[in-house]
Amino acid sequence: MRSVTAALSIILFLTFEYTHAQFPVNRTMNGVRFTREYYDSMMVAREAFYASRERERLKELENNTRKDTILSIGLVHTYSPDIPLFFKDFVNLKSLKLVGFDLFPEFLGSYKNLTSLRLANSEFEVVPTFVFQLENLEHLDLSHNPSLKRIPKEINNLKRLRYINLSNTGTSVRKIKARKNYAIKELNLQRNNISKLPRFVRKLKSLEEIDLSKNRYEKVPLKLTRNKKLKNLKLNENCLILDHQKLYKLRSLERLRLNQCDINYFTENIFELKSLKELQLADNNIQDLPDDISKLQKLENFSLYKNKIKELPEGFYTLHKLETVDLYFNQISRVSPKIQNLTNLKILYLSYNNLLSIPETTGSLSKLRELYLHHNKLSYIPTSIGELGELKVLHLNDNFLSEFPELILKLTNLEDLDLSANNIRDFPYDLTTLQKLHLVFIQSNPMEESKNLNEFNEMVETFEQRGVRVNY
User: Fold this and answer.
1) Nearest to 172 by CA among 152, 202, 145
2) CA quadruple 273, 277, 283, 286: dihedral positive or negative?
3) pTM score, two decimals?
4) How far apart are CA 304 and CA 283, in angstroms?
5) Is the Cβ–Cβ distance between 459 and 415 less than 8 Å?
6) Residues 6+ away with beta carbon under 8 Å from 98
7) Are 256 and 278 in contact (CB under 8 A)?
8) Beta bridge partners of 264
9) Which residues contact 399 (CB under 8 A, 6 or more apart)?
């Protein structure tokens, strides 16, 4: 049975090597000489501390006379070589985490209320048999198990099992054998260094979501078309080339996340995914948003966070079902008056762009709840913004506003207001009439130049008496 101690020793060794490079042997700081022996003793002391603390925790659990009240517990092999016998008394346990164990007592199968189980950092080749007795199990975490070779057919006995985590299992995950399963809906295969889809995935007939992030995929694995119910696909942090792929075959796909994939431009085949409700392309290098974005008429959530977009095409303003749009950290200098067409918009992120103004028609977005316009070049806010009756969050900080926007006083549902880092001298006492405000940020404005400091001080005092957090 492998111990986690070996892995921990490697971590400690690497920590020492890194620290040693930063602080060479015999370097003196504040009168203390940093030597190899010093670091060794420091690591030993740290390990002893955590081991002692874990022993105390286990002793408290053993002496607990109401073990039936324990709902969640975790145990690491490094600090306890065996799973204590008194664990069998945790009859109402819902969540169990066992790290580094390869042998498991039979009583673990008696946890009839258990819904979440983690068996990580182990070396078993087959899923332990006690797992199949946990009839209410919903989440099964088998991450960091590079020796796993088979998921027995008994997994089908778990009718409520919805999620399996096989992340950090390594390339061996491709060889895992499994039978057909109609219960599992979510599968996590992150960080496995794979570029091809494991064969057992096609056996998961009810699979709706798969996470293939942080692997070595260069293309979207179209073998996922065998999973007819697949709706959500995550391929974040893979270096993808999307050209010449028949993405339309993934016709059931509703959510696609391609964040940090080194994508430089939109390819037309993305627009073939007509069922998409969510498309995330954050932190890439995309410069142009094609007008064909209009083909994704079911799109509700759209993210181009941290790209190089300079302009929003006319087609963008035809996406009537959009509810959340994230355009943080781009180079957009203009928003069209046609934004009024996005009548279902609830959250709009336009911060960190080059906006000099926003159109008057923005005030027509009657469902808008959050509006983020900070870190732009705005010197004026249209009065129509005062008509946004549902608005709860308004961030206008780090712009060029020289006067307090009076329209804000009409936003009776406003809870979070940020006007910091502008050039506003006077803030009206009437701001206190917004009864739902609980966050007000107005620092880094030249309030010392105000013509009526008494009114400002009264405003701050009133807010503080109401328990409103005011930064000034």
Assistant:
1) 145
2) positive
3) 0.87
4) 7
5) no
6) 74, 75, 77, 83, 104, 118, 119, 120
7) yes
8) none
9) 373, 374, 375, 376, 377, 378, 379, 421, 422
320 touches 298 (CB < 8 A): no
Q: Name the residue type at position 366.
A: S
Query: How far lies 79's CA from each of 4, 57, 216, in Å?
Result: 9, 11, 35
255: nearest Cα among 238, 234, 237, 228: 234
Q: What b/e string do you get for 353-382 counting C-beta neighbours within 10 Å, with b at 16 or more?
A: bebeebbebbbbbeebbbbbbbbbebeebb
Strands 393-395 and 416-418: parallel
Name beta bridge partners: 417: 394, 440
Average pLDDT over residues 343-354: 98
Residue 313, Cα to own-chain centre: how many angstroms?
Answer: 29
Question: Is pLDDT above 60 for 384?
Answer: yes
3-state SS, one letter per residue, for the chain: CCCHHHHHHHHHHHHHHHHHHHCCCCEEECCEEECHHHHHHHHHHHHHHHHHHHHHHHHHHHHCCCHHHCCEEEEECCCCCCCCHHHHHCCCCCEEEEECCCCCCHHHHHCCCCCEEEEECCCCCECCHHHHHCCCCCEEECCCCCCCCEECHHHHHCCCCCEEECCCCCHHHHHCEECCECCCCEEECCCCCCCCCCHHHHHECCCCEEECCCCCCCCCCHHHHHCCCCCEEECCCCCCCCCCCCHHHCCCCCEEECCCCCCCCCCHHHHHCCCCCEEECCCCCCCCCCHHHHHCCCCCEEECCCCCCCCCCHHHHHCCCCCEEECCCCCCCCCCHHHHHCCCCCEEECCCCCCCCCCHHHHHCCCCCEEECCCCCCCCCCHHHHHCCCCCEEECCCCCCCCCCHHHHHCCCCCEEECCCCCCCCCCHHHHHCCCCCEEECCCCCHHHCCCHHHHHHHHHHHHHCCCEEEC
Residue 99 CA: distances (Å) to CA of 134, 136, 249, 376: 18, 21, 40, 48
Q: How many residues does the chain have?
A: 472
pLDDT of residue 7: 35
What mean pLDDT comes out for the span 80-95? Answer: 93
Q: Which of 283, 224, 215 is nearest to 253 (CA)?
A: 224
Choice between 160 and 17, residue whose per-residue pLDDT is larger: 160
CB 103 within 8 A of CB 112: no
Q: Are 148 and 171 a contacting pair, CB within 8 Å? A: no
- 49 pLDDT higher than 90: no
CA distance 34 to 254: 56
Exposed e or buried b per residue across 252-287, where buried means at least 16 C-beta atoms within 10 angstroms of its C-beta: ebbbbbbbbbebeebbeebbbbeebbbbbbbbbebe
